[in-house]
């Protein structure tokens, strides 16, 4: 539960302006989903941000738990603040964070958008437009965010 609320807090504090900027920039001429910055903020928070944070932290936690359960010596190392606790190696943290970000981004953009885009643009010209740009942004961002999160937990002796 702490991971879920940590994710919500991080996303609420760090992503809003970037997300709104990208969404406003990629509106198709004549098809405006958002009437302005305030409308974009309200719509995005109501429909996708909380979903992204929850899915992202849930996925990361699941990958971490499964990885340490099935391959502890390959993927884990003793925590620097508590040697009795096993944590993911830094490069594995980056990988799990990136995968969690990609999965969360995919899920959070799919639900409402699928109906609209498929109906107006079809599969090839509609469903995949913009997803690769989101991957380029969110995969490194989430990889670094989760690695920093894990390192800071150790630094503050929270493991």
From TrEMBL:
Organism name: Myodes glareolus (Bank vole)
Keywords assigned by UniProt, alphabetized: Membrane, Repeat, Transmembrane
UniProt cross-references to PANTHER family, sorted A to Z: SOLUTE CARRIER FAMILY 25
Main location group: membrane
Keyword Repeat: yes
GO annotations of cellular component type: membrane
Membrane topology: Multi-pass membrane protein
Annotated protein name in UniProt: Uncharacterized protein
SUPFAM superfamilies listed in its UniProt record: Mitochondrial carrier
Gene3D superfamilies: Mitochondrial carrier domain (1.50.40.10)
Subcellular location: Membrane
Taxon lineage: Eukaryota, Metazoa, Chordata, Craniata, Vertebrata
Keyword Secreted found: no
Homology family: Belongs to the mitochondrial carrier (TC 2.A.29) family.
Pfam families on file: Mito_carr
């Amino acid at each position: 539960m702490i991971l879920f609320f940590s994710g919500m807090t991080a996303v609420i504090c760090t992503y809003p302006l970037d997300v709104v900027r990208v969404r406003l920039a990629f509106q198709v001429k004549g098809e405006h989903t958002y009437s302005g910055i305030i409308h974009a903020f309200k719509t995005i928070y109501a429909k996708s941000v909380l979903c992204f944070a929850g899915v992202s932290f849930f996925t990361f936690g699941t990958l971490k738990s499964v990885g340490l359960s099935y391959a502890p010596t390959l993927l884990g190392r003793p925590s620097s603040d508590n040697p009795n606790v096993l944590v993911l190696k830094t490069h594995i943290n980056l990988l799990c964070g990136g995968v969690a970000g990609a999965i969360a981004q995919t899920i959070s953009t799919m639900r409402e958008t699928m109906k609209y885009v498929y109906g107006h643009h079809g599969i090839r010209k509609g469903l995949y437009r913009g997803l690769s740009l989101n991957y380029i942004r969110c995969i490194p961002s989430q990889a670094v965010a989760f690695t920093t999160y894990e390192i800071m937990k150790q630094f503050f002796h929270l493991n």
